[in-house]
Specification:
heterotrimer, A alpha/beta, B alpha+beta, C alpha+beta, B: alpha+beta, four-stranded antiparallel β-sheet, 14 helices, C: alpha+beta, Alpha-Beta Plaits, binds iron/sulfur cluster
């Protein structure tokens, strides 16, 4: 099993004729994902690697029946509308790839998604993958590269960085630890689904035995995760890697992702590490320590 | 992207928020003249983006035109947390009966705007929240439902404010909420919001932060306020090197080779992407290395862009070697980056084999990339060498 | 002049065909071919940007275009 997506998940790509979207469509198809249609206004009737293109989401749903997911890869100015369109046409799992979307618009998408009982992953993310089942989004790149880095197994991965999702998976795979599902959750200050919001899904997935996360300065997401683990007495051991320790002394400077900025004490890596360790999360100094830490924690269970 | 106080106030004025009389001045003579136009005593405030100007002595009170001119000369040269004053704001100083605090910001956990109100303004809000929690209210509100004054009224009332003060404050707070959403702000703060002894309510000081991503959307407002495109308004002004980095990134639209931040070390870094750069920068420092810069490459930049970035970093005095490192890449191509950095070294008149301390970018098109590195004698490694160890190899060569 | 990493050779008779020149200019994502009245011209400055996508090979008669990786051999 896995969370969020499996080889049976049917999804569409909004903005499918864009440069990045074309790549992503091919990579996802090659990996075995079921993309039933794509949307680009004014381009109905074309196809992208055999995937039919429609003018709007409603037309895809009319032609193919209810669809579970959508990958949104449209320019920032059009993203909110595209997400609203997916939500109002009954799509309940939306991966937003686009970056540079102002917080107000992200908050609006998330609020409508909550009202509709839907989930947004991202924005500014590479999507997710259940290895050897399917992937949704650019995570891992071309299918051959993806197969090299990701293997099926029992570790759930969550990462604020798309690239580091693959670095961690690749390190786990090399150490003989496969993954259940890996989610690139996005690097913005407001995102659709945080670590803590994914935890109940992993917790309920019998195939997931432990969690590895990649984390950065900025925001309250790690504190929220720590709280969730303590409040819910989670069965899952968690190992975290914290990047950007140098930023603790660099108040107000933005590095990396939009959400990566130290504005107050709670944003620092020192504070986050303290909170996570207090909640029983093992914090790795280096990526390559993650497999051994996971094994150790799994033995203790 | 932070506004100066005088810019924040110009925005408030545009939206009808109550402000006292005041002017921005740029010379002692102007300060003297401005004083004459104000009724009574004045306050002169240095215009800097960082906080702490009061402590630095960059805020002074004047009872006469002579004093205003003298204070101007005294305040202007004061550097507040490394920042020089842009200008001086001179305003009427009115006797205050009570100070309030109001701020709106985004709550990443609730994923909604949060309105923070207190009837104990003027002092550190964190401290008030700790010592007098019943005098601070935090109220979330929807970003999609129509905005009405109800939320403002409830937030104010929750701190025990009633009577005419409640009715006078509500429209001010409500307007600030509208401004917050309208201009994609990440912070809209009035502190203090004062009730004067004469019963008037006015904004004494304000902070505005606008989302960098929304600058294009609000260009009309920024033009109106005179905020130029090249003003990054980060915690410190950009260096020449950083501005040159931004120009490299703007050369074409393919991928990113930018977000260059200058440091004073000797090891040049060509690193990526967002998360990988943070991880690698830590790793270099952990090994005792001294980075000359931070940067991010990603999204499959062109050969030309990677080349120009390499040349820029090598142009920094004292930088003899660069480390080229990324996490496992899937979108960015190893061979394209390899071409860019090798060509950059050659065009800078340097031998790639000597100059590139280590090349660690595994992933898409790595076989092709490694062939290029072989040919030029550059030391490289694949994913079997961790990011941490690759950084260590680069630092070892600096000894 | 060749690039540092890539050189491209177009067979003489194909290079003179304006129709092929136009097609080449259109398919190459990095602007290596420029269509002129009398045929195709190689834009030297862009040679090193070649992504090895092979789209030009498909757009011209087979065997008429050769992409040389100068870092091999
Ligand atoms: S292989 Fe692709 S990039 Fe290279 S010259 Fe041909 S069309 Fe252009």
């Amino acid at each position: 099993m896995s969370i969020l997506i499996s080889k049976d998940t049917r999804f569409i790509v909004q903005g499918i004729t864009g440069r990045e979207a074309v790549n992503l469509t091919r990579e996802n198809l090659d990996y075995g994902s079921k993309i039933v249609g794509g949307v680009t206004p004014g381009r109905a009737g074309r196809d992208v690697y055999g995937v039919p293109v429609y003018d709007c989401v409603r037309d895809v749903v009319e032609a193919h029946g209810q669809i579970e997911g959508s990958v949104v890869s449209v320019p920032p100015r059009f993203t909110k509308d595209a997400v609203f369109e997916a939500l109002e046409n009954g799509i309940r799992l939306i991966v937003v790839v686009t970056e540079n979307i102002p917080r107000r618009e992200v908050a609006q998408m998330v609020e409508l998604a909550n009202l509709r009982g839907a989930r947004i992953i991202g924005p500014n993310c590479l999507g997710m993958i259940s290895p050897e089942e399917a992937k949704m989004g650019g995570v891992g790149g071309p299918a051959a590269n993806t197969r090299q880095a990701y293997a099926k197994g029992h570790i759930g991965v969550m990462s604020r960085s798309g690239g580091m999702t693959t670095e961690i998976a690749s390190t786990l795979t090399a150490a003989g630890l496969g993954q259940s599902t890996c989610v690139s959750i996005g690097g913005d200050a407001i995102i659709g689904t945080t670590y803590a919001e994914l935890m109940p899904l992993f917790e309920a997935d019998s195939e997931t035995h432990a969690i590895a996360i990649y984390s950065e300065p900025g925001g309250r997401m790690e504190a929220e995760l720590a709280e969730w683990i303590q409040t819910n007495n989670s069965r899952l051991p968690v190992v975290a890697f914290m990047a950007g320790r140098f930023m603790d002394e660099m108040q107000g400077m933005r590095f990396g992702h939009a959400g990566t900025i130290v504005e107050g004490k709670e944003d620092t890596t020192a504070e986050k590490i303290k909170r996570m360790e207090a909640a029983g999360i093992s914090v790795a100094e280096r990526i390559e320590e993650i497999p051994a830490l996971l094994r150790k924690r799994l033995e203790e269970v | 992207m932070r506004f100066y106080e005088y810019e924040a106030k110009a925005l408030f004025r545009k939206h009808g928020l109550p402000l006292g009389a005041g002017e921005v001045v740029n010379s002692a003579a102007d300060a003297r003249a401005a004083f004459g136009r104000l009724a009574g005593p004045a306050v002169l405030k240095s215009q800097v983006l960082s906080g702490g100007r009061m402590k630095a002595g960059a805020v002074k009170f004047a009872d006469s035109a002579d004093e205003a001119a003298a204070h101007f000369d005294a305040i202007l040269p004061i550097v507040v947390k490394g920042e020089s004053a842009r200008s001086i704001l001179i305003e009427e100083k009115s006797p205050v009966a009570q100070e309030y605090f109001v701020a709106i910001t985004w709550d990443g956990r609730a994923k909604q705007p949060v309105l923070v109100f207190s009837d104990m303004g003027g002092i550190d809000i964190e401290e008030v929240a700790e010592k007098h929690p019943d005098h601070v209210s935090k109220t979330h509100f929807s970003s999609i439902l129509p905005l009405t004054p109800r939320i403002a009224k409830e937030a104010i009332g929750a701190t025990g404010v009633g009577g005419s003060a409640l009715n006078r404050l509500t429209p001010v707070v409500f307007e600030l909420m509208k401004i917050f959403l309208k201009y994609d702000l990440t912070l809209a703060e009035i502190n203090p919001l004062a009730r004067l002894e004469n019963g008037q309510f006015i904004v004494l000081d304000g902070h505005i932060d606008m989302e960098a991503e929304a600058r294009g959307e609000h260009k009309a407002l920024l033009d109106e306020l005179g905020i130029g495109d090249d003003e990054t308004r980060q915690a410190r002004p950009p260096t020449e090197f950083e501005l040159a980095g931004a120009r490299v990134n703007a050369v074409d639209h393919r991928g990113v080779a930018g977000n260059v931040v200058e440091f004073d070390g000797n090891l040049g870094l060509v690193i990526g992407a967002g998360g990988g750069s943070l991880t690698l920068f830590d790793a270099v420092r952990n090994h005792g290395g001294k980075p000359a810069n931070y940067c991010e490459i990603g999204g499959n930049p062109s050969v030309g862009k990677a080349k120009e970035l390499t040349k820029l970093i090598l142009s920094k005095p004292g930088v003899e070697k660069i480390a080229v490192m990324m996490n496992v890449v899937s979108n960015t191509r190893v061979d394209i980056v390899a071409r860019g950095v090798v060509k950059g070294c050659i065009e800078a008149g340097k031998d790639p084999a000597e100059t590139i301390a280590i090349f660690r970018i595994p992933g898409a098109w790595e076989d092709e990339g490694f062939k290029i590195l072989e040919k030029y004698g550059v030391e490289y490694c694949d994913r079997s060498v961790s990011m941490y160890d690759a950084a260590g190899r680069a630092v070892a060569k600096m000894a | 002049m060749a690039g540092l990493f890539i050189d491209i050779k177009v067979a003489a008779e194909v290079a003179k065909n304006p129709e092929t020149a136009r097609k080449l200019e259109e398919v190459c994502p990095v602007g290596i071919f420029a269509a002129r009245e009398d045929g195709v011209e190689i834009v030297d400055d862009n040679l090193d940007e070649c992504t090895l996508c092979d789209l030009c090979l498909a757009a011209a008669p087979s065997g008429s275009i050769e992409i040389i990786k100068l870092y091999e051999a």
